[in-house]
Every structure is written in C-alpha cells, then in structure tokens.
Amino acid sequence: MWSTLVILSLLIAPLSPVAAKDHQSSCVIKSGGTNVTDDSPAILKAFRDCGQNGRIVFEPTTYYVNSAMNISCLDNVDINIRGTLLWSTDIPYWLKNSMNVGYQNQPTALIIGGNNVRINGYEKGTFDGNGNYWYQWISEQPNKSNYPGRPHGVTFANLTNSVIRPS
Ligand SMILES: *[C@@H]1O[C@H](CO)[C@@H](O)[C@H](O)[C@H]1NC(C)=O
Ligand SMILES: *[C@@H]1O[C@H](CO)[C@@H](O)[C@H](O)[C@H]1NC(C)=O
Ligand SMILES: *[C@@H]1O[C@H](CO)[C@@H](O)[C@H](O)[C@H]1NC(C)=O
Ligand SMILES: *[C@@H]1O[C@H](CO)[C@@H](O)[C@H](O)[C@H]1NC(C)=O
C-alpha cells in the first residue's frame, strides 16, 4: 500500500490501540532532549531490536529527527506514539538526503513499511514536519510551486494488514 502524506508539514493522525499482541520485546525510545542531538539513531535501533514481534514506545516528549530513515520489514509490531517526532529545519540536508520513492519529483524523509503493524496515537501522537519553516523558505525562492526535492514527511510503503489509529 502506498499512502503518501503531505509535505514535511504533517501532522498526524494520532492513532489508536488495536488488540494487543504478544510482544517478545519492548523498546522505549529515549529522546536526547534538544535538536542538537539527532534522535534518529536511537529510533532506528529500537526498530531493529523490537521491529519484529515487538513493541516500540515513543514517550510523551519531542523526538528530534535530523536524518532520513527507511524503516521497512516490520512484522507484527505495535508502535505507540504519545509524543511528537519533529523534523529538523536543515533544508539543504533534506533536499540532498530524502529518499526517492518514485513519486513525482517528491522524495520522502521517512519510510514505514511492513506487515501487521499497528500505529497507536493516543490522541497525541504527532509527526511534525516543520512545515512552516519550509513554507517560509519556499516563499523566498524563485520557484515556488512543487519545489523539486522537497520531501514528504512520511511515506507508508509496502505496509500491509496494518492500522494507523488516532486514539
Ligand atoms: C533547532 O531549534 C531552534 C529553535 O527552535 C531553531 O531555530 C533551529 O532552526 C532548529 N535547528 C534544527 C536543525 O532543526
Ligand atoms: C528501504 O528499505 C527496503 C528494505 O530494505 C528496501 O527494499 C527499499 O528499497 C528501501 N527504500 C529506499 C528508498 O531506500
Ligand atoms: C521549478 O519547478 C518545476 C516543477 O517541479 C521543475 O520542473 C523545475 O525544474 C523547477 N525549476 C527550477 C529552476 O528549479
Ligand atoms: C516496495 O516493494 C517493492 C517490491 O518489493 C520494492 O521494489 C519497492 O522499492 C518498495 N518500496 C519502498 C518505498 O521501499
């Protein structure tokens, strides 16, 4: 399934708990606490350790996402998001490093894919692409429409038998 969401400014649909499954592992991700610390390595590690038959927990805090992440091959996992993932304002980085997913001229900053994935938002889970920062920047460029290389915040790619729920 392909469901691309808007530009880096995404909000998100907070997500709801679905029937809990047996978890063989559980990973609670710690935020570094400032945007000087890139939380992407900790996030990727959690998905490596708990992305199959596990549970991934984002606490009620802000996670600073300074790097593109391809999180695929998930299998039977709950992703519980009670906080915010905030993308960095480093536009040159994103223009250079966002991932091409074959959609127009628009790459993506985050890929989530796999089977039997439940993303639960508890009415709080947020993906904040720092869109206003981009809109301001774009408004200062000669080419204002559909700026080449401006990424989508999130692409759900090859995600099957899965739910993304707000509460
Ligand atoms: C970090 O946060 C400050 C204060 O909000 C902001 O001005 C700056 O652009 C941010 N830097 C990155 C890389 O996100
Ligand atoms: C993301 O990772 C998956 C699984 O390793 C791979 O098949 C896919 O090509 C990757 N996508 C990108 C854009 O790097
Ligand atoms: C302006 O945007 C259009 C549409 O994405 C693109 O085809 C064109 O190459 C861009 N021009 C410049 C100078 O970036
Ligand atoms: C989705 O799966 C197809 C087939 O395995 C693969 O070619 C494609 O790169 C995947 N898409 C992404 C964005 O990972």
From TrEMBL:
<dbReference type="InterPro" id="IPR011050">
    <property type="entry name" value="Pectin_lyase_fold/virulence"/>
</dbReference>
<dbReference type="InterPro" id="IPR012334">
    <property type="entry name" value="Pectin_lyas_fold"/>
</dbReference>
<protein>
    <recommendedName>
        <fullName>Pectate lyase superfamily protein domain-containing protein</fullName>
    </recommendedName>
</protein>
<keyword id="KW-0964">Secreted</keyword>
<dbReference type="GO" id="GO:0005576">
    <property type="term" value="C:extracellular region"/>
</dbReference>
<feature type="signal peptide">
    <location>
        <begin position="1"/>
        <end position="20"/>
    </location>
</feature>
<keyword id="KW-0732">Signal</keyword>
